[in-house]
Write a structure and sequence with these properties.
The chain is mostly helical. Helix content is 71%, strand content 2%.
């Protein structure tokens, strides 16, 4: 019986991602983000439960990746799709496609789902990459999903009025796709011990999260993810410089 518990939790993650996608497509990004957060909680506990019960299995690993791509790939893509669909595209794209009744601008929102494909590629690489035991290579899919959900929920009114907002979001989306599959090392919040030495970056990051949330509100989640990326890049650069000296 206990061998089914982690997979059941993983399925709860997948269902959370499905619900997030539905709410996103109906234009309710706030509820969609809530379900992504709930999915992230289930994602945290399924692996922990499997290790505690000693029931890790290949099927659990595959199911986890499938659930993660729905919750952290398809759902944030749907949030971005809905946001792009209500924004004004550049005037240069406001003319019909040859032989159709569609405008070029009508196709732009669908580019959002490229992020779901890159999330799947990121998850597949993670399953095969043995270097990611205590850290990550590339941006983790939950971080990417939380960034996009929080960004759009917190700034959608401002985005609606932003000149060139559609192209800005699309460029940002392609950059996040790059980060998902990049070779950039990023730290994980995994502690071998609780002392300060060796965990300086992790503690610095955690201590900065609360002020950012208090100052920026829900948008603070997106700011925290951006700070996480910057801190990872700076830490890696300092490490390389120290090794070269």
């Amino acid at each position: 019986m206990k061998k089914h518990i982690p997979n059941t939790i993983t399925c709860c993650n997948l269902i959370s991602g499905c619900l997030a996608t539905v709410f996103a497509l109906y234009g309710d990004a706030s509820v969609a983000l809530l379900w992504i957060v709930i999915g992230a909680v289930f994602d945290f506990f399924d692996g922990m439960t499997a290790r505690l019960l000693h029931v890790s299995s290949p099927i659990g690993k595959e199911l986890d990746s499938l659930a993660d791509d729905v919750t952290f790939g398809v759902a944030p893509s749907a949030i971005l799709f809905s946001q792009l669909a209500v924004m004004d595209a550049p005037s240069m794209l406001q003319h019909p496609l040859p032989g159709t009744g569609l405008m070029w601008a009508d196709l732009l929102p669908y580019l959002a789902f490229i992020m779901a494909a890159f999330s799947a590629l990121r998850l597949a690489k993670f399953n095969l990459d043995e270097r990611q035991a205590m850290g990550f290579i590339g941006l983790p899919t939950p971080a990417n999903a939380l960034f996009w959900g929080a960004l759009i929920v917190g700034t959608h009114r401002w985005l609606d009025q932003l000149p060139g907002g559609v192209l800005t979001l699309i460029i940002m989306m392609f950059f996040s796709c790059y980060l998902l599959v990049s070779e950039i090392p990023m730290f994980a919040l995994k502690f071998k011990h609780w002392g300060w030495k060796g965990n300086e970056v992790r503690y610095l990051f955690l201590l900065s999260c609360l002020p950012l949330l208090l100052f920026f509100g829900i948008t603070g989640i997106a700011v925290i993810i951006a700070w996480y990326i910057c801190l990872s890049v700076v830490t890696q650069r300092l490490k390389i410089n120290n090794e070269q000296q």
